[in-house]
Amino acid sequence: MKRSFKTIDLTMAAMFVALMAIGANITQIAPFMEVGGVPITLQTFFAVLAGLVLGSRVGTLSMIVYAVAGLIGIPVFSRFHGGFSIILDPTFGFILSFILVAYFTGKIVEKNNSVPAFILASIIGLAINYVIGTNWMYYAYKFWAAAPSAFSYKMAWAWMVVPLPKDVILSVMAGLLAHRLDKTVLSKGQFKNLKRTA
After folding, report:
1. 156 and 23 in contact (C-beta within 8 Å)?
2. Phi, psi (rounded to 5 degrees) for 77
């Protein structure tokens, strides 16, 4: 039977909602950091970290709250956007993917808390983010957004080559950081049972 959310769970989830909002807009100081309409942000890093640090249960909660907050109009998405109309945006698939990213990365490290498992979970989370986000972007451009005349599925993936090295590096860093936190801060006091799922 699943336990109810505790105050520490909700507090940590709220912290990651805030981190996601910051990560979504940190590149506003560099407007050129956008490829094919996809802002180069730190959202994937924080979504991966949420699953690794909070576990599948609380990590998923934090990403759901983040998505819902943006959909109801709070400007937490990239470029300080918010509102239900974001569903039609070609980048909305990346936002949806964050929920699964947190869930699956959390599940992996709940079963194996070694350094390789944390890094593997991070890379799998990144892959989920790219597969869902890029496919959503492709179909959005094809069916309801204004696609460039020569736009193709191959081009959609080519656009993702630019942020890929950054995201791979940050995902590995997230894995190493989360493992360190798991063995130090999160192993003590009220954090000790944060990732327990039952």
Report:
1. no
2. -85, 170
What is the SS3 assignment for 76?
Answer: coil
The model scores a pTM over 0.70: yes
Give the number of other CB atoms < 10 A from CB of residue 31. 9
Helix 164-183 and helix 115-143, axial crossing angle in degrees, nearest 10: 140
Using DSSP's 3-state secondary structure scheme, residue 34 falls into: strand
Q: Is the dihedral of CA 118, 66, 14, 2 positive or negative?
A: negative
- Residues 50-97 pLDDT 10s: 999 999 999 999 999 999 999 999 999 988 889 999 999 999 999 999
Q: Closest by alpha carbon to 63, among 14, 111, 120, 26?
A: 14
Beta pairing class for 34-35 and 38-39:
antiparallel
Q: Where are the domains of the chain?
A: 7-191
Return the pLDDT at 188: 58
- The span from the CA of 83 to the CA of 12, in Å, is 24
Domain 7-191 has CATH 1.10.1760.20: yes
Structure tokens at 122: 């991070």
